[in-house]
Amino acid sequence: MAPNIRKSHPLLKMINNSLIDLPAPSNISAWWNFGSLLAICLTTQILTGLLLATHYTADTSLAFSSVAYTCRNVQYGWLIRNLHANGA
């Protein structure tokens, strides 16, 4: 039988031992994964919300132009706005 390349190659062996064959506690379940995903979503919403709030104007006559400014003139403003809109 041919040796498993994951366990014989030095670099792949290091990756295998640290990522693939890493023993996980028995109490981690799918709910743990959902909680981690919710934490990532919440962190993304907070960070992108703070970044968007720096350029937003709450006046009724200037609100649309401030959002348009963010999307058009701020570097990666369109990406930050879409991450915030779709991350909820």
Automatic annotation (TrEMBL):
Location (main, coarse): mitochondrion
Cellular localization per UniProt: Mitochondrion inner membrane
Topology in membrane: Multi-pass membrane protein
Transmembrane segments: 31-53
Gene Ontology CC: mitochondrial inner membrane
GO process terms (BP): mitochondrial electron transport, ubiquinol to cytochrome c
Superkingdom classification of source: Eukaryota
Gene Ontology molecular-function annotations: metal ion binding; oxidoreductase activity; quinol-cytochrome-c reductase activity
One Pfam family cited in the UniProt record for this chain: Cytochrome_B
Sorted UniProt keywords: Electron transport, Heme, Iron, Membrane, Metal-binding, Mitochondrion, Mitochondrion inner membrane, Respiratory chain, Transmembrane, Transmembrane helix, Transport, Ubiquinone
Family matches, as InterPro entries: Cyt_b/b6_N (IPR005797), Cytb/b6-like_sf (IPR027387), Di-haem_cyt_TM (IPR016174)
PANTHER family per record: CYTOCHROME B (PTHR19271)
Function: Component of the ubiquinol-cytochrome c reductase complex (complex III or cytochrome b-c1 complex) that is part of the mitochondrial respiratory chain. The b-c1 complex mediates electron transfer from ubiquinol to cytochrome c. Contributes to the generation of a proton gradient across the mitochondrial membrane that is then used for ATP synthesis.
Designated name of the protein: Cytochrome b
Protein's organism: Peliperdix coqui kasaicus
